[in-house]
Each structure stands twice: as structure tokens, then as C-alpha cells.
Design goal:
Rossmann fold; five-stranded parallel beta sheet; 330 residues
Length: 330
């Protein structure tokens, strides 16, 4: 990748796009990084996901500005994560502005969750996905997400933890119900759980309370409206025996949390049944629960953690992720 010029677009997601760009630069590439959306406001996200034509001029103007800022640069790659904001017209604009570039798309969402997702696949020169179902359905290379260095050091065995289980995440879809059910299981079995359900605003809570059946029994004081910092999250994970993972109902790929917990050497309780098909799965380490009626064997909490081989951990490193995306050969 040394000397390669890359124009990169990615959604704002807990700093992960910046980490990818930093890794590319550490490998010697020159990276110009932009948000894939004109704005990170809730209104912009709704407009893009609704694929409304009336908002397209706003998106087109944003990409015209990006092209104008970089016109004349001889990019080797245009790298896009998700392609939520880039429609066919904008893609054509980018292709015309940077004709020598190879266009790469990485889907860290399911195709059905991307506006006109299936039609966009044919536009790019190379497409990879984190979703094992989409990989098979559309004949795409499967590339799971990655583990950053701060989550990649498996600790030595620890005899005691402050929490038996922990959940930190946005209170969307079925999550509030599942978190509540797992909390009860944990407490009934003599354990203690740290549960942090987050929403960006109180009005969002009231909307979910009126429309989402998973919010039954969830009180406003059960929801947090100020997010934890990365340092606070890491501190909770360090003090926890198991981490609860509840993926979005409309997704099937492994969440970033799943990969990071493997890197940290933490046990995982997850609703994602597909995890049993991955090379790091071990029943001592990972308990797959039914999202409607979760059950956790009592001995799961106390059974010894089986360390993941270093060769497997390396496959999920950020460097390996970047090498797979750009098809870097040794």
C-alpha cells in the first residue's frame, strides 16, 4: 500500500473509520477521509435510509464539493464503507472524476439495509461483506469486522470480577427486552450484571415507549441519555466475566463488540446464531441464546475460558482486515 492514494468515505461510527484510515497510512498510503453522509443529524439519516428523492440534491451538492476539493488527484482507490449516501448518480460523478481509481465497497450492514443495496453491488470493482448470509446469496467475499489494538490483548486468567455480565449499547429493536430477561437470569443464578441502555434523547425514549413492544416494563430511569466514554466502556469490560451482545434484528453479521470481546478473551452471550459457524467459536466461551426465550446454563458462568489461538486472532486484526479489503498480497 506504500504510496497508494485513497479517497475514503465512511459513516461516523465510534471512530472506527478513522482507525481504518490510520492503519492504511501506517502501511504507507495517503488517505483523504470523508464522512459518507452530508450530516450525522437524525434528519439526514432518516432521509438517506428512506431514499427520498427530495433529499438527493443535498447529498449531490455535498459530493460535488468533495470532488471539487480533490479534483486532479490521481487516486488509486475510492474506498466506500456501506454506500448509504452514494447513489448511482453520485457514483457516476466519482467515477468520471477519478477514472483510474479502483472502487471498493465494504458492507458492514446487510444489503437489505442499504438503499438500493442490491443494485449498487454491480457498480463497484470489488465488494466485500461482513454478513455471511449476503456473502452466499450474492457470491461476495466474507470479511468480518476487526479488533483494534486496545482490545487485542487477552488478559491472564482472573479469579474474580465485579460483574458476571455486562451490556453497553443503544436501546434499539429487541435489546431492552433481551437485556431485561438476561439480567433476571443472571440475578436469579446469583450473579450481578451491568446494564447500560443508551438513547440520544428523551423524546426517542417516548417514541419507542409508544411503538416498540420491547419497551414494556422499561422505565425512563432504565435508559441513559449521556453516552459512556471509550475509557469507561473498557473499564466495565475489564471488570466483567461475560459480555452480552444483541445484534439488530435486521442484521446477521457479527457486531464489532463480538470481535472485540474475542480479542479481550471475554466470554460472550449472544443472540447471533451464525456465530457458531466462525473459526473462533467455542461453547465454553460463547453462549448462544434464543432472542425470544433466552436461557443460560448455570455452568456457563464458571466453565474455564478456552484461549483463542494466536493464528485466529491475527485474522481479525485491523491489519489483516485492511489487507483483505485491498487484496494485499505478501
Amino acid at each position: 500500500m506504500k504510496g497508494k492514494k485513497i479517497l475514503m468515505f465512511g459513516p461516523d461510527f465510534f471512530g472506527y473509520r478513522e482507525k481504518i484510515a490510520e492503519e492504511l497510512m501506517a502501511m504507507g498510503a495517503q488517505v483523504d477521509l470523508y464522512d459518507e453522509r452530508p450530516s450525522n443529524s437524525a434528519f439526514c439519516k432518516i432521509m438517506l435510509r428512506s431514499n427520498l428523492k427530495l433529499y438527493r440534491p443535498v447529498v449531490t451538492k455535498y459530493y460535488r464539493q468533495v470532488i471539487a476539493e480533490n479534483r486532479g488527484k490521481d487516486y488509486d482507490y475510492v474506498f466506500v464503507i456501506k454506500s448509504e449516501g452514494i447513489n448511482e448518480k453520485i457514483f457516476t460523478m466519482l467515477r468520471q472524476a477519478f477514472p483510474k481509481a479502483k472502487f471498493i465497497l465494504y458492507l458492514w450492514d446487510s444489503v437489505e439495509n442499504v438503499p438500493d443495496g442490491e443494485r449498487k453491488l454491480a457498480l463497484y470493482d470489488r465488494v466485500l461483506t461482513f454478513d455471511h448470509v449476503d456473502a452466499e446469496a450474492y457470491n461476495l467475499p466474507l470479511r468480518p469486522l476487526f479488533c483494534c489494538k486496545e482490545y487485542s490483548a487477552q488478559p491472564e486468567s482472573q479469579e474474580s470480577y465485579r460483574y458476571d455480565a455486562a451490556f453497553i449499547g443503544t436501546a434499539h429493536s429487541i435489546r431492552p427486552r433481551v437485556v431485561r430477561q438476561v439480567s433476571k437470569i443472571c440475578e436469579d443464578q446469583g450473579g450481578q450484571i451491568f446494564a447500560f441502555l443508551f438513547l440520544p434523547h428523551k423524546l426517542v425514549y417516548y417514541y419507542h415507549k409508544l411503538t416498540n413492544p420491547a419497551y414494556r416494563g422499561i422505565r425512563r430511569q432504565d435508559i441513559h441519555f449521556d453516552a459512556l466514554t471509550a475509557e469507561e466502556i473498557r473499564a466495565v469490560y475489564d471488570q466483567s466475566r461475560c459480555i452480552l451482545d444483541v445484534e439488530h434484528c435486521a442484521q446477521r453479521g457479527l457486531t464489532m463488540r463480538t470481535i472485540e470481546m474475542m480479542g479481550m478473551g471475554k466470554k460472550l452471550i449472544t443472540t447471533n446464531t451464525g456465530i457458531q459457524n466462525y473459526d473462533f467459536y467455542h461453547p465454553n466461551n460463547i453462549c448462544v441464546i434464543d432472542r425470544k426465550n433466552p436461557r443460560i446454563p448455570k455452568d456457563f458462568w464458571t466453565s474455564p475460558y478456552v484461549p483463542v489461538p494466536g493464528s485466529i486472532l491475527q485474522r481479525y486484526s485491523l491489519r489483516a482486515f485492511v489487507e483483505d479489503i485491498f487484496d494485499v498480497k505478501e
